[in-house]
Amino acid sequence: MRAALEAVGTVLPAAGDDTSSTGLAAAAAGRALAAGAVDPDDVGMIVNAAVYHDDNVMEPANATFVQRALGANLQVGVVKGAGTLAFDLTNGGAGLLTGLQVVAGFVETGDIAHGLVVTGDVDPTPGVSQGLAHVPAGAAVLVGPGTGEEGFAAFCERSYPEFADLYRASLDWDGRHHAVHVHEDQTWAERWLGCAEDALKAFLDDRGLAPAEVDLLVTAPPQPDAGAELCRRAGLDPARLVLPPDAGGPLHTAGLGMALAAAMAEPAWERARRVLLLAGGAGITITIAEYRGRATR
Hints:
Blueprint: E1 3-11, H1 21-36, E2 43-48, H2 62-70, E3 85-88, H3 95-108, E4 114-121, E5 137-145, E6 151-159, E7 167-173, E8 178-184, H4 188-207, E9 216-219, H5 225-234, E10 241-242, H6 254-264, H7 267-271, E11 274-281, E12 285-292
Parallel strand pairs: 2-3, 2-4, 9-10, 9-11
Antiparallel strand pairs: 1-5, 4-5, 6-12, 7-8, 11-12
Helix pairs in contact: 1-2, 4-5
């Protein structure tokens, strides 16, 4: 049995909405659970992939705040035969896909029936941060048991440490308060594209796949036009590319979730036999997953 995508929830906050990281993640998770018709108590695992946390809180895990907001197995002791394990997992812009790899493994072994990977992108030091350009956004992906051949078939991660200094973030004390400082080299986006090209070609080769066998490529590159260029370099049809919708600014960890929601809303999703998900972040780290689509049922 493979682990399959059940639903995706996304949030772009409007004026007056909760714009905390855990608030955005919980709102997106609530939408995913509603769309998938899954009770919060049936979620065996919640993984929070956000990089920037509210007030820079690292402990307890921010995923536990999402769990509390959802009301997932809050009673003391065992509920419905199991509880909900909630923890944070950070892998930069690739975190959502890394979280999906972890959750998929637990679903495949039958240890959990459903799992959530959530994220909420915020500015943790508003007004004093420097270089932090992404817009507030939340995303959540609900995973459960697949039917037939549908589900995740493979994951792969490649790192390119020679470019580690091109994108750096730090939390610094300026004498009055802490502030997030992000340094993005002017060559970062092009280097990201080159690493994504290398990783994607290697993945296709390792899996024995021809570019024409990829029905959809779902990704959220640093620059929107990088998606079409990636397709061109890898020999994929740009018409099969799915990017996140315009959010009014750059997206961070929620970007892949928003692109995935857009892909699952398209008629092509029902016809797709093989979908590739690609995410990347600082490091440079590129993570890719092969998903067998609903047409394989």
